[in-house]
Amino acid sequence: MKVRDIVAECLKQIDESEYIAKNHQAAIDRIVFNVNVVCREIATKYLKIIEKQKIKVQDGEFVFADLNRVGMLYPVKLEIDGKNVDYKVYATRLKCEYRTGYYNYTGDGELSYACLPSKEYDIEDDIPDDRLTMSVMTNGVLAEYYFQMGNYRKSQDYDIDYRHELGILRYADTLKTTSR
Fold first, then answer.
1. 43-48 long-range CB contacts below 8 Å, 24 or more apart?
2. Cα 67 to Cα 23: distance, rounded to the nearest angstrom
3. CA 150-35-122 angle, 5° bins
C-alpha cells in the first residue's frame, strides 16, 4: 500500500476544504506524519513486526547492540540447534537460562524479535505490511489528524472504527500464527 494512496483517501474524507485549499502542502505533510504515527502504534500495540536474525551467542549471552536493525522492542524467541531456548532479558542483552543447558553456550543461534517499522515513511514509499488495509490506515490517520486539529468528536468517531478494525485484524493474525 502506497503512502500516496492513503494521503489521497484521507484528503477525500477531510471536509475542511477551505483549510485544505489554503494549506494543501501543510495538510499533506500532517497526513504523512500521521501515517508514521499510526504505523508505529500498530507495530507496538496490535500487529507486531517480527524480524529474524542469525546471531552469535557468547557464553550464553547475546548483546542487543549486535542486531542489524535498530528499533527492537523485545525478543520473541531464541533458537539454538533448532530448539527453543528460555532466556532472561536485561537492558542491553539476553542471557540463556541455566536450566536450558545453554547458559554458557558459545555459537550460532537465531533470534526473533518484535521491532518498529524500519524507517519513517515518505509520500512515495510503500508500507510493506500486507496485513494492513486502506480502511484501517485511513481511519487511524484521520483520528490523529482531527485530534491534532482540535476536532475531538470526529477524532473519536474515526478512532472507534480504527480500533474496531484493528481488533479484527489482530484476531485474524492470531489465527494465522496459531494454525502453523
1. 43/73, 43/114, 43/115, 43/116, 43/117, 44/73, 44/116, 46/166, 46/169, 46/170, 47/129, 47/131, 47/132, 47/166, 47/169, 47/170, 47/173, 48/73, 48/76, 48/114
2. 42
3. 125
| Distances from the Cα of 78 to the Cα of 5, 89, 100, 119, angstroms | 38, 11, 12, 25
Which residues contact residue 66 at a Cβ distance below 8 angstroms, ignoring those fewer than 6 apart? 55, 56
Residuewise pLDDT in 10s, the chain (180 residues): 999 999 999 998 886 655 566 678 888 999 999 999 999 999 888 888 888 999 999 999 999 999 887 788 899 999 998 899 999 999 999 999 877 788 888 899 999 999 888 889 999 999 988 889 999 999 999 999 999 999 999 999 999 999 999 999 888 776 655 444
This model's pTM is above 0.90: no
DSSP assignment of 66-111 equals G-SSS-EEEEEEEEETTEE--EEE-SSEEEE-GGGT-TT--EEEEE
Please tell me the distance from the alpha carbon of residue 29 to that of residue 148, in angstroms, as a whole number. Answer: 13
